[in-house]
Design goal:
With 113 residues, the protein is mainly α. The chain has a single domain (2-107), classed as Arc Repressor Mutant, subunit A, CATH 1.10.10.10. It has 5 helices and 2 strands; from the N terminus they run αβααβαα. The chain has helices at 2-13, 23-29, 36-43, 71-82, 94-97; strands at residues 21-22, 57-58. It has a two-stranded parallel ribbon with strand order 1-2. The longest helix is centred in the N-terminal third of the chain and has 12 residues, at 2-13. The model has no long low-confidence stretch (mean pLDDT 89). The chain binds a DNA duplex (13 and 13 nucleotides) through α2, α3 and β2.
DNA sequence: CACATGACAGGGG
DNA sequence: ACCCCTGCCATGT
């Protein structure tokens, strides 16, 4: 059970800077296909201080998942732009920055393939 | 124990 | 491209 969370965190930590991934993609890479919601629930409970690139996780549509205008929303957009990711109206062009759905899988440098 | 909720996703209209 | 509905599943009432 706890091991499950660890794998999800690992999947998120593996997203290269300047790129983004969807909740579903993270769940899949963590060996939990179809459990995107689980990933979202976990991100909502990331203990302060835990170092994790949570801001690189978006909806499958490329949208930032938090309520537009909310504190977290702005924080996420800010951090993404800080590393060169383009955010337009709370949305990121997955065609260019997305890790899933493209030919960029080679960039996921983790232990499987 | 039944029911509502949620940082989700995919398919259809 | 947007809205709605359905499938999912852990938590909280």
């Amino acid at each position: 059970m706890q091991d499950r969370n660890a794998r999800i965190y690992a999947a998120i930590a593996a997203i290269p800077p300047g790129r983004v991934a969807s909740y579903g993609a993270i769940a899949a890479r963590a060996g939990l296909p179809g459990r995107a919601r689980l990933v979202g629930r976990l991100l909502g409970e990331v203990p302060d201080g835990m170092e994790l690139p949570w801001f690189r996780v978006l909806r499958a549509s490329g949208h930032v998942a938090m309520p537009p205008g909310s504190r977290g929303f702005r924080e996420q957009c800010r951090r993404l732009r800080a590393e060169g990711v383009e955010v337009v109206n709370g949305r990121v062009p997955l065609s260019r920055f997305g890790l899933d759905g493209n030919l960029d899988h080679a960039l996921w440098g983790w232990p499987d393939a």
